[in-house]
Design goal:
The structure is a single chain. By secondary structure, the chain is of the alpha+beta class. It folds into 3 domains: about 110 residues, Butyryl-Coa Dehydrogenase, subunit A, domain 1 (Orthogonal Bundle), CATH 1.10.540; about 110 residues, Butyryl-CoA Dehydrogenase, subunit A, domain 2; about 140 residues, Butyryl-CoA Dehydrogenase, subunit A, domain 3 (Up-down Bundle), CATH 1.20.140. The chain contains 13 helices and 12 strands. The strands form 4 sheets. It has a 4-stranded mixed sheet. A 4-stranded antiparallel sheet has the order 4-5-9-8, with no helix packed on it. A two-stranded antiparallel ribbon has the order 1-2. α1 packs antiparallel against α3, α1 packs across α4 and α5 packs antiparallel against α6. It starts with 6 loop residues before the first helix and ends in an 18-residue tail after the last helix.
Length: about 425
């Protein structure tokens, strides 16, 4: 791989930087209540169970509209919605670059909005949606007029999705669903919920799970409450499904193959998440260097102390190595089938997410007491990126995938199962 960033991507980065300074920074400055050191209090509607405030989401929507008008929002999206189908490498380089700018509307941490966002539901709907579902939701998902929440996780089942307990039983040309969902993110603004339920098979079977696209006003679908998390505001709902009756036309993809729908775009999401983590780690290093050169104790800059130099230098080395690896894996995704490099994506994802947390923690330590306050962005960065070590596949899930490929239990090098010794 040529490790120089391609010239066309460099030009795009310059154009995006100019756009951010021209359009997004002034928008932030016009709404300081959402972007100062007490941001959670203005961003959160405490009277509505801690969901994002309407004013804050209106600013994010305005930023999204400006990104779309500038021609950046749809870069990584399918051509069917006016997208450019930019390469994974291009999107990853851009996302890392935007994240390295720090906190801002160019890469809004709370709702994953970015100048060049992923919007996985667009890809999912474009690949698995029926013509009617596409006509209803596809364009709205891009513009933000529609949002589809994702209801897979359950109170007793997170990573073990094949054991989910929500069921769907066929009743003529309808299905009746019952169950409960946890961390059903985004339902407060959703037009519909994508609910996964077992329609056949036994607990633990990969087959037999089906995805249903359900309008939020469907009788039997109820938001019970929102979980208040380490990072506020919250949009992570506990949702109950009680005798919910939906037409057969609500099925997304094939009956019994809902996990294919759930896993769509997972590799692209994970590598782009890794890029954001590496970018924010680079930002933390840059800010730590800047502060260490300016901050003086006992008459000289703390940058002259090895106790400060060495941990920052080590973190810088980690960032540089992992940044190159993330770019390399993105390039591999553009050249090879995703499953053939799934272990490399897992390596990039779990190591980058750890790196972001470690870099934010180091930046707090270098900045001392002021680094621990909300006057600096590091505690906010830590709280946000800490969840990435759980969502999109926890560290442990990623490491398990790596081990399976390494020992030949999965992937291109999968070994045939050993025959049992019968003693004959």
């Amino acid at each position: 791989m040529d490790f120089d960033i391609p010239e066309d991507i460099r030009r795009t980065l310059n154009e995006i930087d100019a756009f951010v300074e021209r359009e997004l920074v002034p928008l932030e400055q016009a709404h300081p209540q959402y972007f100062d050191h007490r941001r959670e209090f203005a961003r959160t509607d405490w009277e509505r169970d801690g969901i994002p405030s309407a004013g804050y989401e209106a600013v994010v929507r305005e930023a999204r509209d400006r990104c779309d008008r500038a021609g950046f929002l749809r870069m990584g999206l399918p051509r069917s919605v006016g997208g450019q189908e930019a390469s994974n490498l291009a999107v990853v380089i851009i996302r890392e670059h935007l994240s390295a700018r720090g906190i801002g509307l160019q890469g809004n941490l709370h709702d994953e909005q970015s100048v060049v966002p992923s919007i996985p539901m667009v890809h999912l709907m474009e690949k698995f949606g029926s013509p009617e579902q596409k006509a209803r939701y596809l364009e709205g998902l891009v513009t933000g007029d529609d949002f589809i929440a994702f209801a897979l996780t359950e109170p007793d089942h997170g990573s073990d999705a094949t054991w989910l307990e929500t069921t769907a039983v066929r009743d003529g040309d309808h299905w009746i669903l019952n169950g409960r969902k946890r961390f059903n993110s985004g339902v407060h603004k959703a037009s519909a919920d994508l609910v996964f339920a077992r329609t056949s098979g036994q607990p633990g079977d990969a087959d037999g799970i089906t995805a249903f696209l359900v309008p939020m006003d469907t009788p039997g679908l109820k938001v019970e409450y929102y979980h208040w998390c380490f990072n506020m505001p919250s949009d992570h709902a506990e949702v109950s499904v009680n005798d919910m009756r939906v037409p057969h036309s609500a099925v997304v993809g094939r009956i019994g193959h809902g996990l294919d729908v759930a896993q769509n775009f997972v590799h692209q999401n994970r590598i782009r998440q890794a890029a954001q983590s590496v970018g924010v780690a680079r930002y933390c290093v840059q800010e730590s260097v800047k502060y260490a050169r300016a901050r003086k104790t006992f008459g000289r800059p703390i940058a002259q102390h090895q106790a400060i130099q060495f941990p920052i230098a080590e973190m810088h080395a980690e960032v540089e190595m992992l940044r190159s690896y993330v770019f390399k894996v993105a390039n591999e995704l553009d050249r090879k089938p995703a499953e053939s490099v799934s272990d490399q994506v897992a390596i990039a994802n779990f190591r980058a997410n750890r790196l972001a947390c470690n870099a934010a923690d180091l930046a707090m330590q270098v900045h001392g007491g002021i680094g621990y306050t909300r006057g600096k962005p590091f505690e906010h960065i830590y709280r946000h990126f800490r969840r990435y070590r759980i969502t999109e596949g926890s560290d442990e899930v990623q490491i398990r995938k790596i081990a399976a490929y390494l020992f030949g239990y999965a992937g291109p090098g999968k070994q045939p199962a050993a025959k049992k010794d019968t003693g004959a």
